[in-house]
Amino acid sequence: MVLSKRHTILVLMGIELIFNAANINMIAFGQYNNSMQGQVFTLFVIMIAACEAAVGLAIILNVYRYFRSVEVGKANEMKN
Amino acid sequence: MTVSAALFLAITKNIVYAAFSFLFVLLGVAVLFVFAGAEFVAVTQIMMYVGGVLVLIIFGVMLTASYSADKPNTNLSVQIPAIVLALVIVIGLLYSFTFIEIMPALATDNQPINITKTQQIGYLLLTDYVLPFEASGILLMVALIAAAMIAGNNMIKSIPHNLSKGGGKTESNS
Lengths: 80, 174
Fold this sequence. Notes:
The structure holds two protein chains of two kinds.
Chain A: H1 8-32, H2 37-67
Helix pairs in contact in A: 1-2
Chain B: H1 2-11, H2 15-35, H3 39-63, H4 76-98, H5 118-127, H6 130-151, H7 154-158, H8 161-165, H9 168-173
Protein backbone atom coordinates (compact mmCIF):
# COMPACT_ATOMS: atom_id res chain seq x y z
CA MET A 1 0.00 0.00 0.00
CA VAL A 2 2.87 2.35 0.68
CA LEU A 3 4.45 1.65 -2.66
CA SER A 4 1.47 0.91 -4.86
CA LYS A 5 -0.72 3.93 -4.22
CA ARG A 6 -0.60 7.24 -5.99
CA HIS A 7 -2.44 9.36 -3.50
CA THR A 8 -0.07 10.70 -0.88
CA ILE A 9 -2.61 10.59 1.93
CA LEU A 10 -3.24 6.91 1.23
CA VAL A 11 0.50 6.32 1.49
CA LEU A 12 0.45 8.09 4.86
CA MET A 13 -2.45 5.88 5.98
CA GLY A 14 -0.41 2.83 4.98
CA ILE A 15 2.45 4.01 7.16
CA GLU A 16 0.04 4.41 10.07
CA LEU A 17 -1.20 0.85 9.47
CA ILE A 18 2.38 -0.42 9.68
CA PHE A 19 2.80 1.42 12.98
CA ASN A 20 -0.36 -0.26 14.25
CA ALA A 21 0.89 -3.69 13.27
CA ALA A 22 4.13 -3.09 15.15
CA ASN A 23 2.13 -1.94 18.17
CA ILE A 24 0.05 -5.11 18.19
CA ASN A 25 3.21 -7.18 18.02
CA MET A 26 4.82 -5.33 20.91
CA ILE A 27 1.72 -5.60 23.07
CA ALA A 28 1.42 -9.31 22.35
CA PHE A 29 5.05 -10.15 23.08
CA GLY A 30 5.09 -7.97 26.16
CA GLN A 31 2.03 -9.79 27.41
CA TYR A 32 3.70 -13.10 26.71
CA ASN A 33 6.83 -12.13 28.62
CA ASN A 34 4.86 -10.62 31.51
CA SER A 35 6.66 -7.34 31.23
CA MET A 36 5.46 -3.80 30.88
CA GLN A 37 8.10 -2.75 28.39
CA GLY A 38 5.93 -3.55 25.40
CA GLN A 39 3.22 -1.22 26.55
CA VAL A 40 5.65 1.58 27.31
CA PHE A 41 7.25 1.22 23.89
CA THR A 42 3.81 1.18 22.30
CA LEU A 43 3.05 4.48 23.97
CA PHE A 44 6.22 5.97 22.53
CA VAL A 45 5.44 4.57 19.07
CA ILE A 46 1.95 6.09 19.18
CA MET A 47 3.49 9.43 20.08
CA ILE A 48 6.00 9.23 17.22
CA ALA A 49 3.19 8.29 14.81
CA ALA A 50 1.18 11.32 15.86
CA CYS A 51 4.16 13.63 15.27
CA GLU A 52 4.82 12.02 11.90
CA ALA A 53 1.19 12.35 10.81
CA ALA A 54 1.07 16.03 11.76
CA VAL A 55 4.27 16.96 9.96
CA GLY A 56 3.47 14.73 6.97
CA LEU A 57 0.04 16.24 6.48
CA ALA A 58 1.49 19.74 6.74
CA ILE A 59 3.99 18.86 4.03
CA ILE A 60 1.21 17.35 1.89
CA LEU A 61 -0.87 20.52 2.21
CA ASN A 62 2.07 22.65 1.17
CA VAL A 63 2.89 20.39 -1.76
CA TYR A 64 -0.75 20.48 -2.88
CA ARG A 65 -0.78 24.25 -2.65
CA TYR A 66 2.31 24.50 -4.79
CA PHE A 67 1.84 21.71 -7.33
CA ARG A 68 -1.99 21.52 -7.33
CA SER A 69 -1.69 17.75 -7.05
CA VAL A 70 -1.21 15.12 -4.39
CA GLU A 71 0.11 12.36 -6.60
CA VAL A 72 3.35 10.79 -5.55
CA GLY A 73 5.22 11.16 -8.79
CA LYS A 74 4.17 14.68 -9.60
CA ALA A 75 6.22 16.55 -7.05
CA ASN A 76 9.52 15.85 -8.68
CA GLU A 77 11.26 19.19 -8.41
CA MET A 78 12.34 21.24 -5.46
CA LYS A 79 12.75 24.74 -6.80
CA ASN A 80 11.91 25.60 -10.39
CA MET B 1 -13.49 -7.14 11.53
CA THR B 2 -10.19 -5.33 11.80
CA VAL B 3 -8.63 -7.42 9.05
CA SER B 4 -11.58 -6.94 6.72
CA ALA B 5 -11.54 -3.19 7.31
CA ALA B 6 -7.79 -3.13 6.61
CA LEU B 7 -8.29 -5.11 3.40
CA PHE B 8 -11.00 -2.71 2.31
CA LEU B 9 -8.68 0.17 3.10
CA ALA B 10 -5.99 -1.43 0.97
CA ILE B 11 -8.13 -2.11 -2.08
CA THR B 12 -10.65 0.70 -2.18
CA LYS B 13 -10.41 3.42 -4.79
CA ASN B 14 -12.34 6.12 -3.01
CA ILE B 15 -10.21 7.99 -0.53
CA VAL B 16 -13.15 8.99 1.66
CA TYR B 17 -14.11 5.34 2.03
CA ALA B 18 -10.48 4.64 2.88
CA ALA B 19 -10.58 7.24 5.64
CA PHE B 20 -13.73 5.75 7.17
CA SER B 21 -12.42 2.21 7.01
CA PHE B 22 -9.25 3.52 8.65
CA LEU B 23 -11.49 4.55 11.56
CA PHE B 24 -12.74 0.97 11.87
CA VAL B 25 -9.20 -0.37 11.72
CA LEU B 26 -8.10 1.90 14.55
CA LEU B 27 -11.07 1.00 16.73
CA GLY B 28 -10.46 -2.70 16.06
CA VAL B 29 -6.84 -2.36 17.06
CA ALA B 30 -7.95 -0.65 20.29
CA VAL B 31 -10.28 -3.59 20.97
CA LEU B 32 -7.35 -5.96 20.39
CA PHE B 33 -5.32 -3.98 22.93
CA VAL B 34 -8.12 -4.39 25.46
CA PHE B 35 -8.18 -8.13 24.81
CA ALA B 36 -4.42 -8.26 25.34
CA GLY B 37 -4.80 -6.66 28.75
CA ALA B 38 -3.40 -3.27 27.83
CA GLU B 39 -6.32 -1.02 28.52
CA PHE B 40 -4.30 2.15 29.05
CA VAL B 41 -2.69 1.74 25.63
CA ALA B 42 -6.14 1.14 24.17
CA VAL B 43 -7.47 4.37 25.62
CA THR B 44 -4.37 6.19 24.37
CA GLN B 45 -4.88 4.64 20.94
CA ILE B 46 -8.45 5.89 20.78
CA MET B 47 -7.51 9.33 22.01
CA MET B 48 -4.53 9.92 19.76
CA TYR B 49 -5.43 8.04 16.59
CA VAL B 50 -9.18 8.40 16.41
CA GLY B 51 -9.20 11.83 18.02
CA GLY B 52 -6.11 13.29 16.45
CA VAL B 53 -4.60 11.49 13.51
CA LEU B 54 -7.89 10.54 11.86
CA VAL B 55 -9.23 14.07 12.12
CA LEU B 56 -5.99 15.36 10.61
CA ILE B 57 -6.26 12.83 7.77
CA ILE B 58 -9.87 13.72 7.05
CA PHE B 59 -8.94 17.40 7.00
CA GLY B 60 -6.13 16.54 4.60
CA VAL B 61 -8.56 14.61 2.39
CA MET B 62 -10.98 17.50 2.33
CA LEU B 63 -8.36 20.15 1.69
CA THR B 64 -6.61 18.28 -1.09
CA ALA B 65 -9.54 16.57 -2.80
CA SER B 66 -8.70 17.29 -6.38
CA TYR B 67 -9.80 13.87 -7.55
CA SER B 68 -11.38 11.11 -5.58
CA ALA B 69 -10.58 7.99 -7.56
CA ASP B 70 -7.11 6.67 -6.94
CA LYS B 71 -5.73 4.86 -9.92
CA PRO B 72 -3.19 2.20 -9.08
CA ASN B 73 0.36 3.10 -9.80
CA THR B 74 1.12 1.61 -13.18
CA ASN B 75 4.70 2.76 -13.24
CA LEU B 76 6.77 -0.38 -13.67
CA SER B 77 9.74 0.90 -11.70
CA VAL B 78 7.48 1.24 -8.66
CA GLN B 79 5.40 -1.88 -9.16
CA ILE B 80 8.32 -4.30 -9.32
CA PRO B 81 9.78 -3.28 -5.92
CA ALA B 82 6.28 -3.37 -4.45
CA ILE B 83 5.67 -6.92 -5.66
CA VAL B 84 9.12 -8.07 -4.54
CA LEU B 85 8.66 -6.51 -1.10
CA ALA B 86 5.22 -8.07 -0.68
CA LEU B 87 6.53 -11.50 -1.69
CA VAL B 88 9.48 -11.24 0.72
CA ILE B 89 7.17 -10.28 3.59
CA VAL B 90 4.70 -13.06 2.81
CA ILE B 91 7.42 -15.70 2.54
CA GLY B 92 9.08 -14.52 5.74
CA LEU B 93 5.82 -14.58 7.67
CA LEU B 94 4.93 -18.04 6.40
CA TYR B 95 8.41 -19.29 7.28
CA SER B 96 8.23 -17.89 10.77
CA PHE B 97 4.74 -19.25 11.33
CA THR B 98 5.56 -22.74 10.21
CA PHE B 99 9.16 -23.41 11.21
CA ILE B 100 10.09 -21.25 14.15
CA GLU B 101 8.72 -22.10 17.57
CA ILE B 102 8.36 -18.69 19.11
CA MET B 103 5.72 -19.41 21.68
CA PRO B 104 5.84 -23.05 22.69
CA ALA B 105 4.10 -22.56 26.02
CA LEU B 106 1.34 -20.27 24.87
CA ALA B 107 -1.04 -22.99 23.83
CA THR B 108 -0.59 -25.06 26.97
CA ASP B 109 -0.96 -22.75 29.91
CA ASN B 110 -4.48 -21.56 30.39
CA GLN B 111 -3.77 -19.00 33.07
CA PRO B 112 -5.82 -15.86 32.65
CA ILE B 113 -4.07 -12.90 31.15
CA ASN B 114 -2.90 -10.56 33.83
CA ILE B 115 -4.59 -7.23 33.75
CA THR B 116 -1.80 -4.71 33.92
CA LYS B 117 -2.24 -1.73 36.12
CA THR B 118 -2.14 1.74 34.71
CA GLN B 119 -0.31 2.73 37.86
CA GLN B 120 2.60 0.49 36.88
CA ILE B 121 2.87 2.25 33.53
CA GLY B 122 2.97 5.57 35.34
CA TYR B 123 5.73 4.42 37.67
CA LEU B 124 7.72 2.97 34.76
CA LEU B 125 7.37 6.14 32.71
CA LEU B 126 8.64 8.31 35.54
CA THR B 127 11.41 6.05 36.80
CA ASP B 128 13.02 3.88 34.14
CA TYR B 129 11.86 5.74 31.07
CA VAL B 130 11.99 9.31 32.30
CA LEU B 131 14.54 10.41 29.69
CA PRO B 132 12.53 9.15 26.67
CA PHE B 133 9.43 10.60 28.32
CA GLU B 134 10.91 14.07 28.50
CA ALA B 135 12.42 13.73 25.04
CA SER B 136 9.00 12.76 23.67
CA GLY B 137 7.53 15.88 25.21
CA ILE B 138 10.15 18.03 23.51
CA LEU B 139 9.60 16.13 20.24
CA LEU B 140 5.85 16.76 20.41
CA MET B 141 6.43 20.46 20.90
CA VAL B 142 8.93 20.62 18.02
CA ALA B 143 6.55 18.71 15.73
CA LEU B 144 3.69 21.03 16.65
CA ILE B 145 5.71 24.15 15.86
CA ALA B 146 7.09 22.59 12.68
CA ALA B 147 3.67 21.55 11.40
CA ALA B 148 2.27 25.01 12.08
CA MET B 149 5.19 26.62 10.30
CA ILE B 150 5.10 24.32 7.28
CA ALA B 151 1.35 24.48 6.79
CA GLY B 152 1.16 28.22 7.37
CA ASN B 153 0.68 30.69 4.60
CA ASN B 154 4.02 32.36 5.08
CA MET B 155 6.02 29.71 3.31
CA ILE B 156 4.54 30.24 -0.13
CA LYS B 157 4.87 33.98 0.23
CA SER B 158 8.45 33.71 1.35
CA ILE B 159 9.49 32.07 -1.92
CA PRO B 160 11.09 34.79 -4.05
CA HIS B 161 9.03 36.17 -6.86
CA ASN B 162 11.29 35.22 -9.72
CA LEU B 163 11.48 31.64 -8.45
CA SER B 164 7.79 31.05 -7.93
CA LYS B 165 6.80 32.76 -11.15
CA GLY B 166 8.20 30.36 -13.70
CA GLY B 167 8.15 27.42 -11.36
CA GLY B 168 6.45 24.10 -11.45
CA LYS B 169 2.98 25.46 -10.87
CA THR B 170 2.17 26.05 -14.48
CA GLU B 171 3.97 22.99 -15.72
CA SER B 172 2.33 20.58 -13.36
CA ASN B 173 -1.11 21.82 -14.27
CA SER B 174 -0.86 20.30 -17.69
